Amino acid sequence: MSSGILSRLPRAVRGDVATASRALTLGTFLAASAAPTPLYRLYQQDFALPPVTVTVIFGVYALALLITLLVAGSLSDHLGRRPVVLGALALELVAMALFLDAGSAGLLIAARLLQGVATGLAASALGAALIDGSPARGALINSIAPMAGMATGALGTAILVSYAPLPLHLVFVVLVVLFAGQMPLIWLTPETAGGKPGLMASLRPRIAVPAHVRAALLRVTPVAVAVWAVGGLYLSLVPSLIQSATGSRSHLIGGLVVAGLTSCGGLAILSLRNRPARRILIIGTTGLTLGTGLFLAGINLAAIPLLLLGTVIAGYGFGAGFLGALRTIMPMAAADERAGLLSAFYVECYLSFCVPAVLAGLLAGQAGLVVTATVYGAVVMLLAGTSLILVCRQGR
């Protein structure tokens, strides 16, 4: 009944419309995940928040997303893709309402927590639905959507804050309209799964690293930690850091920097997806090391062009490092080992995404943002350089 409208279309067109609806919805969820980043500086000023509180607001999103992926990542196999996505959209609308009403750090934390759960549900169900429709095209969309979505969310919010009224509210009004409009689109898409037995058993997280993959996972761990730690820094503290280091009060620059990192990461995944894993890792670790160094130089010299250049190079390394690490370990696992291995890898990644950022928030309250970023970046460069050495030694 729900797909009756689509059923009148030619089969190829139905598939394209369904894929476009799912891709648009996934991209909107990921854009919403980065939308608060340019606002953190305003929240910090309006609510008198210390840097650690800002990073906690950021960190609870990543933890909620991780836990949701681990516990409910296969929920749509049992309940169907559509019901899970519609439930995620409803939760996301509640999160947007909390952002609109936020007058304290507590409400912001609650909004980000709920947003993490909604995004975890949506990402797993929509990602699976895209692959159900077309394995090759779905895999490509799943690779590009996170980077493109986050770039759009950060830059779009920065533009609205810079040139439109209601800086703390307008972006969430726009997102409410988008998410509400996507509910009927998802309702009209055909169901591609559901009815699989074992719902309760699927809620038990399965984290396992096969013995023959452990050495490879250890080799790529430094770059995986470095990649996601850079992402955490940019999405939590970089807009405030730029103001502190350069004196610039432009929200647009902060949005451009975050969008530069994520969009260049997406470009790296798109351009390197057919290269050997070892070459991708060498490119990723080199780009991350060089780019982070240039970014730190720009911060310490108060040179905005230099930190933008560093961000572009680090962003390419960001995408390449993640892709290279994933491509190194996943082909080594048997079919029945991949889910547990992927879960273990994502635990490592998302903890690296939020824990270092929260620690940086603690340090920034004592030493200042510039000193904190310099120490943080030096650790990232050390990890990326270590990974580069390990990859080159393994190649020999």
UniProtKB/TrEMBL annotation:
It is found in: Cell membrane. It holds the Pfam family MFS_1. The keyword Transmembrane applies. InterPro entries: MFS, MFS_dom, MFS_trans_sf, MFS_Transporters. Keywords: Cell membrane, Membrane, Transmembrane, Transmembrane helix, Transport. Gene3D superfamilies: MFS general substrate transporter like domains. The chain crosses the membrane at residues 50-72, 84-103, 109-131, 143-164, 170-190, 211-231, 251-273, 280-301, 307-329, 341-363, 369-392. Its main location: membrane. It comes from the Bacteria. PROSITE patterns: MFS (PS50850). Residues 1-396 form the Major facilitator superfamily (MFS) profile domain. It is a multi-pass membrane protein. The keyword Transmembrane helix applies. PANTHER family: INTEGRAL MEMBRANE TRANSPORT PROTEIN, RESISTANCE PROTEIN MDTM, PUTATIVE-RELATED-RELATED. This is MFS transporter.
